[in-house]
Amino acid sequence: MKRSLVLALLGLLATTWLAAPADARWASSSPGSARALSTTVGAPGTVSATCGLLLDATVKVDWAASTSPWVTQYEVLWGTNSASPSRVDLVTGRTFTTPALSTGTWYFTVRSVKGAWRSPVSNQVSKSVSSVLFLGVVCS
Amino acid sequence: MRHKKLLIVPVLVGAALATGFAFAAWTSSGSGTAVAKSTTSIDSVIAPGTSAADLYPGATSSVTVTVSNPNPYPVMVHSVTAGSSTLVNVSCTAGTVTSDSRAFDADGLSQSDGSTKVIAANGSGTYVLVTHMATTAVDACKLQTFTMSLTAALASAA
After folding, report:
1. Which of A85, A123, B39, B82 lies most in the core, judged by the most C-beta atoms within 10 Å?
2. Complex ipTM above 0.85?
3. Which domains does chain A have, with CATH numbers?
């Protein structure tokens, strides 16, 4: 009788063990997709330009921060051709001072930078540097 | 000989009992033996959920995916593979955006509410995935939609 009980239990255990893999069939691997969206980089705020000290012939350009709070760098595009700037300076911060300029009208725009991203350019500002007899060059 | 026969009977009885118990476990979802025994459960559908347009070079953000359960029994998501974006346009190449995997959790992954783990029968669950945009993302990657293929491991929660 005892032996019968033991064997019955063994049979129970063996079948339960064999039944276990059936549970694995419940598992499945489902394919699908996720979607992420990128933003763009906002242009800097209003740009302004001021002349340096008398006879300095430098121009200081400053601007308000980009509408994208994560922007930390800006490009100042400038030159004597209003449509095609010949110089590009990458700056950290929101101000840029030119070296002493030669005579002519100088145009400035600024755009925000993040990695390889560039924002649209800002408003354009300009300053004229002219030669004044006995005084040298003057910015106005 | 008679003794041997006597031994076989209890073994068969035990086996029959065990099979009965096994079915009992399978049917704990209350959907009946036939459903519980099915080996061809309907695959869940993983669809993109919400995502803010907030990725920029070097940024980390998050998106959601919705996992629907078309089966008449509850399931749990145990892991989600990492994802990598497909080609967006000629310049914005594949792999620009990636999503982190969610590592295997035997107790099931938490849904977006931070606590729910079971997706009810014929229900759906929302899961959060962390996403990254490469620092090298080019200008042509602005204002784009990035699709990442991924796979989720699910199992019956019954």
Report:
1. A85
2. no
3. 47-139 (2.60.40.10)
